[in-house]
Amino acid sequence: MKNVSKTKLIEGLNRDLADELGTICRYIQQAALARGMFGHEVREFVKAEVTDEVNHALFLADKIVTLGGTPAVKPAPFKELTDPREMLEHDLELERRAVTNYAERAGQAEAAGEIGLKVRLEEILADETDHAEEIVRLLGGRGGD
Ligand SMILES: [Fe+2]
Ligand SMILES: [Fe+2]
Q: Domains of the chain (ranges plus CATH)?
């Protein structure tokens, strides 16, 4: 029988999976819609990052099944934008939210006794941190906001 902490962990991983699916959809749309010279930068960025997000989604879906759950198939909603700078600002907000969510999830994994999963979630957290930092660079900032 599943304990409460494992059930909560599966629910959280499913929200993370929906977020990853939303990010994949968002990056594909942004790659296609971004226009102009800055849009070219956005296009190069999202095309490079989307592979990481696909790998995160594949990992989460496998892990949810391993833990006894069923993977989510609906992407989380996102803003559909055409201005490249607004796209990146939205992306930055959601990449930072992902960092926060994976920190919470790593804590839940540890509480559920899933130490290997905790380490993998921290690796994903590090990827999302890299994504956020790259966006800050593209937006012309230096971090610290
Ligand atoms: Fe991701
Ligand atoms: Fe990301």
A: 4-68+82-138 (1.20.1260.10)
